[in-house]
Amino acid sequence: MQNFKYQIFTSVIEEQIKNGILVSGDRLPSIREIKEKYKLSITSVQSGYDYLVMKGCVINRPRSGFFVIIKVNEDIPEDLPTFSPVVSNVDFDKKVRLTSKSDKSSEQISFNTAAPTDLLVPQKLILRKMQEVIRKKGSSILRYYSANGSEILRNQIAARATKFGCKINAEQLIITDGALQALYIALSSVTQSGDVIAVESPCIFSVLEVISNLKLKVIEIPVQYKTGFNIDFLKDILTENNIRAVVLTPNFHNPTGILMSDEAKEELVSIAQSNEIPIIENDIYGDLYFDGERPSTIRNFDTEGWVMTYSSFSKTLAPGIRLGWLNTGRFFEQAERIKFSLGRSVAPIFQELMIQLLDENSYDRHLRFFRKQLEIQCVELLNALRLYFPKECYFHRPHGGYSIWGRLPKKVNMPDFYKFCENQKIAFTPGDTFSYTDAYSHHFRIIFADRITCESIVRLKIIGEKVQSILDEPN
Q1: What is the mean pLDDT of residues 182-209?
Q2: Where is the chain membrane-spanning (predicted)?
Q3: Which CA distances in Å does 92 have to 202, 217, 223, 425, 440?
């Protein structure tokens, strides 16, 4: 898959707006001027300007041209949920059932599955490369591979990480059957049943389920809209609790899409090293950034091996490619034993597929298209939510990843809301599934991994009008 041709000039305009070279009201070059300068077709230039208009940084004034428009910073709330000091997993089994309820009707529009859809999966590329692997490797891919994974693949992953400043020792890497297995191995390497860990909140329900199955206790650390993972909150709980690990997603946190700053990442590593606490970092969305360069990982700042970073190709390539990896740091021996007990090796055909894609740079070419398409869908969906839902609702703009985190006013009865959405053939993920507590009972997650259609926009409009009618009712 190729980049959009118009990016050759839209990226320049976006960078100039970001750096203050272009300011609100500045007139941009005409379509014909851009066409001549960048040797593009009129269609490509028009598509590029349509993209900038959709993002809200450019306005099209008929018969006048395109102008920069810089909106005032949006009003971002800063709600801090109140958590119990230590929370067990008593009620989570009931909550996680909410994530498996689904209307199997083909008419349903799903905004609740955080995985690439047919729109984003490079099907021809994957199938062609798999056929090449089968022809080249023959029956060898039917045998066991090393329990830790292919040495070639581990070297490729380590080499790729160095491109964004992350030094990984390939000998400390373990290839896993997806990201959740990597998390399971990491947690099992540094904790025992009954231990207390700190975990970001809200937190994706699959991570909470792994924690629950390991019978760990949890202190939830709030993720704030403006600053992300609350490091001061973590510092406070460390004074009174024996925390055995910290679990978080610093890059495009699921469900909020928040990006943790490099300063905060570095401070977190310092805390981990001084207190000798392992950090388990989920970097599954790190490659899905919308602007600028790929963000650093927490591992970038780790010099003593306290950070265990894991990721997967299922979110960036195809959900059926069950192949992840874990950088074990100083905990390699424990992690290796646990991985061996879970199975001899990850499917060889998936490992060889990724070796091919990484060796030929096909994976990174795919990512460039993938990211841009995700961003377009994100902007379209966010604009519709903010347009059709009442102003009392809040939808946080993500910097990357798959999800928008929404919040409805307390007056809205959420079970009734979800029932109405179900009747409209729309599926969201309830906020209750992102915590052991009830802190997010009026929140919900919206995924933009699938094509945004006129039909889906109409249904969102109907749901937004329903919420408005509830707010208009007398108390």
Answers
A1: 96
A2: none
A3: 14, 12, 20, 26, 14
| Assigned fold of 7-68 | Arc Repressor Mutant, subunit A (1.10.10)
AA identity, residue 298: I
The alpha-helical segments, DSSP class H, found in 411-453 are 414-423
> Are 426 and 459 spatial neighbours (Cβ–Cβ below 8 Å)?
yes
Q: Which pLDDT does position 1 carry in this prediction?
A: 38
Cα three-residue angle 318-324-328, rounded to 5 degrees: 160
**CA distances in angstroms from 296 to 153, 240, 252, 265, 302, listed in the order given:** 21, 31, 12, 9, 12
Count, residues in the chain: 475
First to last CA, the chain: 54
403: phi then psi, degrees, rounded to nearest 5: -125, 150
pLDDT value, residue 286: 96
Helices (H), 219-361: 231-238, 262-275, 332-342, 348-359
Amino acid in position 114 = A
Domain boundaries, the chain: 7-68, 105-119+365-472, 123-362
C-beta of residue 432 within 8 angstroms of C-beta of residue 95:
yes
- Mean pLDDT score across all residues of the chain: 90
Token pair 């969201």: residue: 428
Rg (CA), the chain: 23
Q: Which residues pair with 68 in a beta bridge?
A: 58
Tokens of 333: 């021996």
For residue 81, the model assigns a pLDDT of: 66
For residues 375 and 290, give the distance between their C-alpha atoms in angstroms, rounded to a whole number. Answer: 6
Going by CATH, does the domain composed of 123-362 fall within 3.10.50.40?
Answer: no
pLDDT at 429 over 80: yes
Q: Quick one: average pLDDT of 134-153?
A: 92
Place of tokens 């005032």: 72
The strand pairing partners of 60, in sequence order, are 66
pTM score, whole prediction:
0.88
Q: Residue type for 37, please?
A: K
Q: Which element (helix H / strand E) includes 201?
A: strand 196-201
> 155: pLDDT confidence band, cut at 50, 70 and 90?
very high
Cα–Cα dist 153/149, whole Å? 7
Would you say the CATH fold of 123-362 matches that of 105-119+365-472? Answer: no
Domain at 105-119+365-472, CATH class: alpha beta
